[in-house]
Write a structure and sequence with these properties.
Chain lengths: ~400, ~325
Amino acid sequence: MTRNFALTLVLLFLFAAVAMAQQDACLVCHGPGMAKGKAQAVDPAALTGSIHASLTCTDCHAVDPKVNHAGNRVVYCAKCHEQEAAGFNKSPHVEGRKANIEKLPTCITCHGGHAILPHSDPNSRTSHLNSVKICIQCHEDQQLTDQLQQLPKASVIKSYENSVHGQALMQHGSEKAPACIDCHGSHSTLASDDPDSPVYKTHIAATCGRCHGDIQAEYVQSVHGTALGSGVTESPTCTNCHGEHNIKPHLDPESRVFATAISKTCSDCHAAEKVVAKFGLKADRIATFKESFHGVGTEFGDTRVANCASCHGVHNIYPQADSRSMINAANIEATCGNCHTDLPASFASAQVHESADEKESGGEWYVRQFYIWFISILILAFIVYRVLEYKRRIKRVE
Amino acid sequence: MDERTQNAQAEREQIIQSLTRSILDAAKPHIDPATPQAEIDKRTREITERLQFESSVALSELVTRFSKTTPVDAKPTEERTFLRFGRNFRAQHMLMFTSIILLILTGMPLKFPEFGISKFMIVTVFGGLQNSTLIHRIAAVGLIIVGAWHLGYIIFSRMGRRDFWLMIPRPQDAKDAFHTVLYYIGRKPSGPKFGRFSFIEKFDYWAVYWGMVVMIGSGLILWFKEMFNKGLFDIAREAHSDEGLLATLAIIIWHFYNVHFNPEVFPMSWVWWTGRLTESELKHHHPLEYAEIVNAERKAVELRAEKQSASSESGS
């Protein structure tokens, strides 16, 4: 027992001694202040403080010290970090290398070299807060994004800094706010058109739902969520309404879902000929809303008037026939009643989204036709009369 | 001719010449190349002369009208004046145009919300829809008061009753309108002679009458919508919006022309403020009324003379 223990101790000591000796051997050339010629100086303390303190130089650097090994810094992270490396190898960061694009990141670009700290350490380069800075280093480099057409524009990425997420993270240091990697993934960072990407259209709701779970649950039940779920990729997901990097709180006037902006956001699809024609939607929903007093008030920036969401719901939009719909006959009175407590029930049951341009609207069409003709004829008569009068006046002066 | 006038004239001629040149340039592709130069020159000269003439007429009218003194600083004339609008009627008119201007400013932007000027009016001038709709309702009350006031006026006031009777359209008005058009196209040597109210003024009055009925009626439905159903509300909204546009256009094109932009009264006829017309104005614009007044006066004088002679006879 004692012998075994002593033997283990000796062996351990030996290993340590060998390791130390090996490190010392590298530091003969690479130690601080020792670097000569092309040898690069290494601070042994950086490695000692890092999560890799127990590793030796040759664990990462496959180096034969006997030959000239300048420039031969092959890094073998994958030896231990197999999964991460596999993800990274599929990412556009590696794919881009085939196209001979320089300036693409490798492991150390993000994680650093010898002084790697675990990402749970706030001082780590890859900590929740710091990771953003690594990504924007390249992605907010205008020169780079201008050069590489496949990259999103620098301004698009930069808008994250003013978004509700960016503000929470970068200004207030919130641990809950998503950094780049929370939506895009950390190592694989697939492009948004890759079906495996967490920001691929059909995955977005789940990605957002990791924090906004209750909203995701509501959304997947909705007409938009079920449509997308059944493969209708035109159907909007979170980002179609809220934006991507530039998401603002819904009470921010710059938000795409601010009370006065939302009809514009809905119009992206509901007034788009392609979408409307393909799915047999009513094309005049936005136009008739704009004509209504609600729409007019919205145009003047009044937030009290109803917008699309006030009547149709937000994440919980259903077809009118669905009993859960806010505009279902069973619920419409309560929906109007949210604002108009004094209106009789007959008001709620009447036709909404009517246009005086259409004969089906009933009385309005006739009223409008009457005035169109009345005003036109009157104006024409006025003008003719005035012109005649003017000509006469000229003649009289002559 | 002093130097300034000469300079102005030279400048005007220059403008006209450059205008002529540009007309000639624009017309060039349409001119048959076979046309002799002399013909082109002749036509050009005609256009130039025409332009010169019309611009000088317009300019001189403008200058005369702008330099026309207002009654405030007018020299006291010896000319006799006649009361056209009493104090009561003038007060009605003032309350009405104040209300209507406010109604147009707060209402018209709602018909054209996408225009920049509409946003400026509602958001910047009135400070938002909440304020503008409140002002609209206040002004609407003003208009309703005018409506009720005027109805009382044409029933209970002697002058109101008489004027309303004279306002009623008659076949003569259609004849006058036809006559006017014939005169304008040169088929008659002179325009028709008008009485107290010409067909132009009657048109103005009845347009307002009709407008008041539609606007107040539909406006009340919109205001107290909880008492009606949505079908009626929608129709009222369409009518209110369209009639509002019609009223605005009628005021600008018809009424403003008659009382502001018409060179005969430009920049403004002051009768809304003074209520009075001079003898020459009355004679010119309402010759039949003038004749009637003169006639009545002569009869009154005769009657008084008769009475005097009768009393002196009985006294002797």
